[in-house]
Amino acid sequence: LICALLPKRYIGVAGFVWVMGYLMVCHIFSMQMKYMNEEFDFLRTQMVITMKLTSFAYNLYDGTYDYKKVFATDHNPKEAKMYAQRKKFAITSLPNPLEFFGYVYCFTCILAGPAFEYNDYVQSIDGTTFLVKESDGKEKLKKPSTILPALKCLVIAVVCMVGYLQINGRHKINDQFDPTFIASFTMGTRFIYLLIAMFGERLKFYFAWKIAEGASILAGFGFEGYDKSGKVIGWKGVENIDMIGFETAPNVQTATRVWNKRTQGWLERYTYMRAGKSLFAVYLISALWHGLYPGFFFVFLSVPALTAVERLAKQKLNPIFCPGYDGYNNATYPKTTTAQIYWYVCTINT
Questions:
Q1: Which of 73, 149, 231, 272 is 20 to 30 A off residue 323, Cα-Cα?
Q2: pTM above 0.90, yes or no
Q3: DSSP character for 322?
Q4: What is the CA radius of gyration of the chain?
């Protein structure tokens, strides 16, 4: 309603400020009611809705007030990628209430995400994303089966939950603060137990994200299209976690990109690219979005410092151990023994 009534030039900023303010009220209310008691509350749902509403406001701004700039064809190379994304997700007219609320409260992702873009939602609903061009140039609706990829997510989720229950039953994080536990083991042993316990905790997140991913795929969301031979590329458009990628990440930057991927994309598109590429702004918003627990601010506001140190280290060390590697494309990584050892050392260190 606010987006419809305000002048177009204020849609993006007003929508963002309104929703973040609303989320803060929810956080404060939740803290008053359930602070630090580890009960499930409504904030997970509010966090997902915040991502959807803020992205919707910015995309509507891009498709209306900023239309000429976003859809221009003369962007410089540095801005081309950013404007290509804005053009892809731009909303050129307000949807009707049914379309809007169907997107915001989509049942497959209302509890734990993934929060995908409005255009991705609409194109899956109307079938546009499943259109393929035939030899005669005509487009044909060709929707592949979603059952097997959804079942794959379900199987992975169940394995993760079993793993979580088994590890959490044997190695609890709270043991690290128990005087008897501390007196019984050396610091090195306690550190190993902590790594095991934290891995078990991550399995809990993997379970929730994979269940939600499978539900979204089953509903037809996340389709990546067909390759030139007509085969399905995949359904990673709603993937929230690359488990292997995270567990074997060789640096902090890679780890943050494959953990909670939909949120990472949201922060990149609507904070990083619109706030002067400030990592501090990104992680401040991330901390506020997660909640008002002090731990969130300690964790997230330490990441810019870690990233800055890591960038400096890569700038100095990569030319020595893996010359030719661009830092992003693994195809450019050298196959030498030294480079492989360097990669594993970085992974263990991370």
A1: 272
A2: no
A3: S
A4: 22
